[in-house]
Amino acid sequence: MNFLAHGWLARGGIDDFLYGNLIADGVKGVDLSAWKAEEAAGIRHHRRVDAFVDSHPVVSGVLARSPRRQRRYAGIALDLIWDHFAARTLTSDERRWLVHRCYRVLATRPAPARLAAMMPVLVEQDWLNRYADFAFTCRAIEGIGRRLSGPNRLAELVPWLEEDYERLARDFARLWPSVNDALGIAPHQDGLVIRP
Q: How far apart are CA 14 and CA 105, in angstroms?
């Protein structure tokens, strides 16, 4: 899962908790004492989601059928593909509300150094909404691959992602409810009204 899916799974928490979930990939180590309590809880939640997804039988099956030469990198691509399907699964009102909240939270807090250059671009170029576009998601995957050393193995995965798209959609349809049931933090208010 990537930013959008992590945001959705953390949507019921306060802004500090959501922020921790959004920036967790930029935080190293287990000592989170420098973070506010709810931010640290969000970072831990993000890590639990990642561990749950990475060990899920659906993901194991997808990785087993991914091209052998690029298999080591397939998990990175899948994180963005899951965001693509999450963007397409959420209603337009849900996505508009969530993206607005994520961008507001990110705009009011500094990102960790490892994410500092990327976060303003993510907001400015509206990545969270654009993940609904498969071509954009594939370009994002290729872009991550350009930042890795050696041949762009992530770009090499794109033809497989295109060919396997319908099957990946079915995989996500099995994975997403499982992740939401296990680790989704739903809003606590009865009758939540989704507003931008």
A: 10
> Please, are residues 36 and 16 in contact by the beta-carbon 8 Å criterion?
yes
Which residue type, as a one-letter code, is found at position 31? D
Task: Report the length, in residues, of the chain.
Answer: 196
Task: Check whether 193 has a pLDDT greater than 80.
Answer: no
pLDDT for res 192: 42
Residue of 33, 22, 140, 29 whose CA lies nearest to 78: 140
Q: Is the pLDDT of residue 191 over 60?
A: no
Give the whole-angstrom CA distance, residue 125 versus residue 141.
Answer: 15
Residue 15 pLDDT level (bands cut at 50, 70, 90): very high
The pTM (predicted TM-score) of the whole model is 0.93
Tell me how far CA of residue 168 lies from CA of 13, 30, 140, in angstroms. 29, 33, 17
Residue 189: predicted pLDDT: 54
Residue 154 C-beta-side C-alpha neighbours within 13 Å: 20
Which residue is listed with tokens 């004492």? 33
Secondary structure (3-state) at 195: coil
